Amino acid sequence: MKISTKGRYALRMLLDLAEAKDSGFISLKEIAERQGISKQYLEQIVSLLNTSDILRTSRGKQGGYMLLKEPSQYTVGQILRITEGSLAPISCLDDEVNQCERADGCKTLYMWDGLYKVIADYLDGITLADILERNYSEVRAGSYVI
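The chain above was modelled as a monomer; its predicted structure follows.
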C-alpha cells in the first residue's frame, strides 16, 4: 500500500492548521507557502475535506480555513480514508462484506485481513495532536539552554 501525495499533503495541510488553531482562519496561500505545496493542489484536497466535516471555511478578504474540531479529534486513519478511499491492502477487503467469489476458500484472506487491521488500528490510534506533541517533544529534547 502506498499513500499518494494527496493523502500526505492533506495530512501536512491539516497539521499546519492544527499548529495555527488559535490564529483564526488561514488562507490556502499561506499554507501553500509554508508547506511548499501548490495552492491549486491544496484546492483539490480542500474539496475532498469540505465534504467530510473537517474544515470550517470563511470567504472574503480575511477568509480561509480552520479545523472544525480540536486536533485530538482527527486521526490519521480518518484523514487518509477521505483522501485515499480505503486503507485495505487488497481490493476484496474494501467493502464491509467481502464480495470476492473466492473469499470462502481463500487461504491467504486471514493474513490480508490481519494486515488491514494492524494498519487501521495503527493509523486510527494517531491523532493530529499526537503528531504535533511528538514533534514538540523532539524539538525540546534536542535543544538546551545555557
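The first strand starts at residue 55 and ends at 58.
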